[in-house]
Amino acid sequence: MSSEVLSLSELKVCLPQDVYNHLASPYDTDSDDDVSRVEKILESMKISPADTCCRVNLLQATVDEVVNALKGHLSLMDNDHKYIVQKHDTIRDMVTIRATCSHDDLYKCNVPPNADPLDEFSCWTNRSKKGWPMSHRSIIVDRFCGEAVLRGAQIFVKGILCADGGIKEGEEVAVYAHLSANSTPVPRGLLLENYLGKCVFLGIGKSNCNRSEYFSQETGVGVTMTKLAGPTLPPLNGILVGKIMLQNLPSAVVVHALDPQKGDVILDLCSAPGGKTSHIASLVSNDGLVIACEKGKKKMVQTREFFKSMGASCIVPIATDSTKLLLVDGAQNRLSPRQIVDSAAADQDGLMKVRGFYPESFDRILLDPPCSALGLRPKLQIDIKSLDELLKHAEYQKRFVRCAVPLLKSGGTMTYSTCTINPSENEEMVKFILSDFPCMKLVPISEDIPGLPALSGFGMSDEECSMMRRFDPSDKNIDSMGFFIAKLQKM
Length: 491
Fold this sequence. Notes:
globular
């Protein structure tokens, strides 16, 4: 048995056959050529979108201030990395950053820049004993660390699984990600010569410490990436804290679709880690009441601290099961959300102990429920094992819908969104809302918000499909994650 070393171009992101068939039917109907749309999406999933999107927190900065600050920060970087920083064409609080150069050679054939093509050790895969390069010592990180690296993150010591012996501080190393499916777990600290798994090349980095410190330290950056196999993304960790938030474009436009207004009482049913909730506070200038819910208390405490860092003072974080938030008893003497929050006691973590809210309490509701996350990029491996496992997500999401609709005021607005390409959680969920709740209707999303129409074939008219937004990872016009947004109003 030996190790298997792949380039990103060689890596195939696969789905179980029943899941593939489930997705292929609606997507291939939408395809305009002979290549399966699902295959295109899976190929696109391996790398990050080329644009880094920064959502400006208008509570603490202006867009012009952020653009100028980012230009100043990025201008100080190495000359090999040049970036274009500009305002988004239509999203007023969004700034985009794109590198003017990329290292496509690292993605396509894994040849180091400026390498002699006749050098027998120039390739990063399959050119030396067990596939490792002779020109560089190497490290292997876990898959989740690897996906973060392709998004522009540096390598923290906790993410390093194994490494060549003798690596020194300041040394340039080749970086790979371990693919865990159907392979034996890798004991942390393993010497690379004893690795027998399957991995994929990510790029080149500079070691910040000696090898022994990778595995003796609990915190800290172990390797700083210098060249990525994929789009070159700017390192922005710790930059303009409180003034910007890194968000994928579709994730940021959800709140613009909701269109919150000053003075609104708004509910976010699934808030953590808080990006969309804090966006609401930013757009209404803290003028209103935003209830942020999340089931896990630890998550909610962390999210509360994030809200504080963003200056989002209109948000009230609550640790609760949002599927059980609807109060049906004592409705004749019901209190408003503000009265409920003001009369609530705090628990030992400082979170308000709120049992729930009464019907028709909220002007706007943001519902971004837990989903299969089949739209996230980059994704080196998909963990869903079967169609039955995939379909369970939609059944869980219906529990949130059944709670959200009664809580919405007549005339109120709700957005429903997911970060998946699965129609069962997207178009079919909207059809479920319209069928089971005749009081709800689709309303158009502003033309300023980009995206494709919803997939057809789910019992909705072409006009209704055009009211929704679908983001396809393989779309050549919008390089983004997979995402879905629908806007509905209660009549």
